[in-house]
Design a protein that fits this description.
The complex is a heterodimer of chains A (about 200) and B (about 100).
Chain A lengths: L12 H31 L9 H4 L2 H26 L3 H31 L8 H34 L3 H32 L3
Chain B lengths: L10 H23 L4 H23 L8 H32 L2
Helix pairs in contact in B: 1-2
Classes of the chains: A mainly alpha (about 200), B mainly alpha (about 100).
Chain lengths: ~200, ~100
């Protein structure tokens, strides 16, 4: 890549190192989630007389959550696209859309958890629910943190504009957001679809 | 690969998004509308999930981008290797260990 078409967020040596460092962090996050998936897979059949996945999962709600998160990952990509075209206003609009979709996802997920607790599936009910709530809760906590993080960056973009520093920070946050969608794909497939009766 | 930097319309992202939606719906279709055995269904939808993760990595996150693209790819492959060892190793050790006690 020549200097002219290098995206702004890669211009300085510091930014390049920050982005590389964040990729290495994401590698560690993959391993973190793999341990939670592993314990879920080991425990999922131990329902201890409580409800199993197919008793409580509702396909429609899970699909809505999936599409909210998928779409928010797409709009986060659009925000980066406009950041690279130096279109500050478009970037801010798509970032706000991303945050709203993320908040919608969280709203759906919290309602889902409340529903499960009413059905008699709390984190203490069985091995299955402990594994389930730990995995899903860790993902939900990541989404919550992402919303706070990106909201704060939005304030910086608003006040300072698209600079070498803010673009590199925002690019890193977008990697984090896409990563959460990757984790969700595996939760959707190997927790929800696997747990339901076909 | 031409970077999204110069292109006017983000085709890459739009195609990735449509593919993600299609793969999700296809997984739901395979799970609920076909009569394959459970293990075949899991193999199919598991493969679809991996495709979708690849779309995120390459079309949205541009894992190969930048001077450190190769380091990123090696780092990802190593992390995925560790994840597979942890998941399949745990299932193997704990299920066969549990079975051996009876």
């Amino acid at each position: 890549m020549t200097q002219a078409n290098t995206p702004l967020e890669y211009r300085s040596q510091q930014s390049q190192m920050n982005i590389l460092g964040f990729w290495i962090f994401l590698g560690a996050e993959i391993v973190l989630f793999s341990t939670l998936f592993a314990s879920y897979f080991v425990l999922e059949h131990n329902t201890a007389g409580g409800p199993a996945g197919h008793d409580i999962f509702i396909l429609k709600d899970v699909l809505i959550e999936t599409f909210l998160l998928l779409t928010s990952s797409f709009t986060a990509g659009l925000a980066i696209h406009f950041m690279r075209n130096n279109a500050k206003n478009d970037m801010i609009v798509w970032t706000i859309v991303t945050l709203l979709l993320g908040a919608g996802f969280l709203y759906m997920e919290i309602n889902e958890f409340i529903h499960y607790v009413h059905e008699g599936a709390t984190i203490q009910t069985s091995g299955f629910t402990a594994g389930f709530f730990t995995l899903l809760g860790t993902h939900g906590a990541h989404v919550t943190f992402g919303i706070i993080w990106i909201s704060l960056l939005l304030v910086q973009i608003f006040r300072r504009g698209i600079t070498e520093k803010t673009s590199s920070k925002f690019f890193i946050a977008s990697l984090y957001w896409h990563f959460l969608d990757v984790v969700w794909i595996f939760i959707f497939t190997f927790v929800y679809l696997k747990g339901m009766v076909g | 690969m031409s970077s999204t930097h110069s292109s006017r319309f983000p085709w890459n992202h739009l195609i990735g998004f449509i593919l993600s939606i299609a793969l999700t719906l296809l997984a739901v279709f395979v799970k609920f509308q076909t009569n394959f055995s459970d293990s075949i269904i899991m193999w199919i939808i598991g493969t679809l999930a991996i495709f979708q993760a690849m779309i995120q990595l390459f079309m949205f996150m541009h894992v190969t981008e930048g001077k450190e693209g190769m380091i990123n790819v090696i780092n990802m492959i190593y992390s995925i290797f560790l994840a597979l060892v942890i998941v399949f190793g745990s299932i193997w050790v704990l299920t066969s260990g549990h079975a051996a006690m009876h």
